[in-house]
Specification:
5 helices; single chain
């Protein structure tokens, strides 16, 4: 398990315990503590199941929304254009990630 995952799981476990601990210490009624605990558990579930999306994931969503699905020959070229825009904004590493994910052609120069 990586250090990032240990930190994530530790933080999620702490987040799950805090509503119960506060409920006991501050003598909150069950009608306050249980919904708060449920909301925290729902947040933990979303974090573990969906995680954080990368820039290339967002580019993929945009390409899908405009109708350029995986079988479209224009998809790689459009992804390359997005990568050029990202590179021009000063993020060459992210641009390379987008190019690798969509197998877009690399620039010649």
């Amino acid at each position: 398990m990586s250090k990032e995952n240990r930190i994530l799981y530790g933080g999620l476990a702490l987040a799950a315990v805090i509503p119960l601990l506060l409920g006991l210490l501050l003598e909150w009624p069950v009608l306050v503590t249980i919904p708060l605990f449920g909301a925290v558990l729902y947040g933990i579930y979303r974090k573990l199941m969906h995680g954080n999306k990368t820039t290339s994931d967002h580019v993929g969503v945009v390409l899908d929304r405009i109708g350029l699905y995986a079988d479209s020959p224009v998809r790689a070229l459009t992804a390359h254009r997005f990568a050029k825009l990202i590179e021009a904004a000063g993020n060459p590493g992210v641009a390379d990630e987008v190019r690798q994910k969509f197998d877009a052609p690399h620039p010649l120069g």
